[in-house]
UniProtKB/TrEMBL annotation:
Domain IPT/TIG residue range list: 2-81, 83-163, 165-249, 251-330
Single biological process term from Gene Ontology: carbohydrate metabolic process
Gene3D superfamilies reported for this sequence: Immunoglobulins
Species: Streptomyces nodosus
SUPFAM superfamilies according to UniProt: E set domains
One Gene Ontology molecular-function label: semaphorin receptor activity
CDD domains for this protein: IPT
Protein name: Cell shape-determining protein
InterPro entries per the UniProt record, alphabetical: Ig-like_fold, Ig_E-set, IPT_dom, Plexin
Pfam families xref list: TIG
Length: 331
């Protein structure tokens, strides 16, 4: 009596063969061959109702049969699946913390059972025959091989790069006017791939990479003291390292001079009252730089210079700009 095949499990596998297949049925005692199409398979008869075999290489759908002295069995279908092919990864780089969204494009990707970054599996969030979306696992700052596994086998690898988190340690100068537009130097680490520099919630309109530890950026408009962050494929820098802060300084304003006149020889003290005077870096009387002391945000004491004649303007300068020439001093 010829053998009978009732079921085959699994009923599909890679074209390269090698799938362990179990045949269930009857009349298997004394089986002399198991074939997948015209290709013989290695097999072992476990009992009269069960055979274990290894699928040979093949393609398409193959009829699986068992032959014994009683004849050849009915056929059961085993489907050979093409190997998955990965053609691109977008983006092909991301943070060491993982969790970003990556799109894997290729062919024969349906039914993906695993997408592996190095030795760690990713979370699959979407899967079609030509595209898989995944969330990468965490990894060390280094390139790893990405592979896709389906019932058809495992793809050849493509590289994926884990990028370390950038850091911002210092801003120079760390002060400037509310309207921005001035250039500052941002120092830190892992800055080569910077895509954005933000001053608080506002983004710099222009950045330039000098080295992995230094970039220059144009300051956007703003106010107060804000943290400066850098964004790369490795993520966005976190405040707290070094001194990653920038302060917007208001334009200095003079509201009074006391006294507003003095000897032509100079040397007398003049109290300048106003606002936004904390960061005063120079005082000019009639265009002459003069010594000064900042007392508070509303008061600066300067020493009147000699060598001026007539009524001259008093100007206070800071990173926020220069005061207007409204207030005059008469030697």
């Amino acid at each position: 009596m010829a053998p009978i095949i009732n079921s085959i499990s699994p009923n599909q596998g890679p074209a390269a063969g090698g799938t362990a297949v179990t045949l269930t049925g009857s009349g298997f005692t004394g089986a002399s061959s198991v074939t997948f199409g015209t290709n013989p398979a290695q097999f072992a008869t476990l009992s009269d109702t069960k055979i274990s075999c290894t699928a040979p290489a093949g393609s398409g759908s193959s009829a699986v049969t068992v032959t014994s002295s009683g004849g050849t069995s009915n056929s059961s279908t085993f489907t050979y699946l093409p190997s998955p092919v990965v053609s691109s990864i977008a983006p092909n780089q991301g943070p060491t913390a993982g969790g970003n969204t990556v799109t894997v494009t290729g062919t024969n990707l349906s039914g993906a059972t695993a997408v592996v970054f190095g030795s760690h599996s990713a979370t699959i969030t979407g899967n079609t025959s030509t595209q898989i979306t995944v969330q990468p696992p965490a990894g060390a700052a280094a390139p790893v091989n990405l592979t896709v596994t389906t019932a058809g086998g495992t793809s050849t690898p493509l590289p994926y790069f884990y990028i370390p988190l950038p850091t911002v340690d210092d801003i120079s100068p760390a002060l400037g006017p509310p309207l921005g537009g001035n250039a500052v130097t941002v120092t830190g680490s892992n800055l080569s791939l910077v895509s954005a520099v933000r001053f608080g919630s506002r983004t710099s309109a222009s950045i330039s990479v000098v080295s992995d530890g230094e970039i220059t950026a144009l300051v956007p408009l703003g106010s107060g003291t804000v943290s400066v962050t850098a964004t790369t494929p490795g993520g966005t820098s976190l405040p707290g390292v070094g001194n990653p802060y920038y302060t917007y300084v208001g334009q200095p304003v003079i509201t009074s001079l006391s006294p507003n006149q003095g000897p032509a020889a100079g040397g007398n003290s003049v109290t300048i009252t106003g606002s936004n005077l904390t960061y005063t870096d120079s005082v000019r009387v009639g265009g002459i730089l003069t010594p000064f002391v900042t007392v508070s945000d509303t008061e600066v004491v300067a020493v009147a210079p000699g060598g001026t004649s007539g009524t001259v303007a008093v100007l206070v300068h800071s990173p926020g700009g220069t005061s207007s020439a409204s207030y005059q001093y008469t030697p």
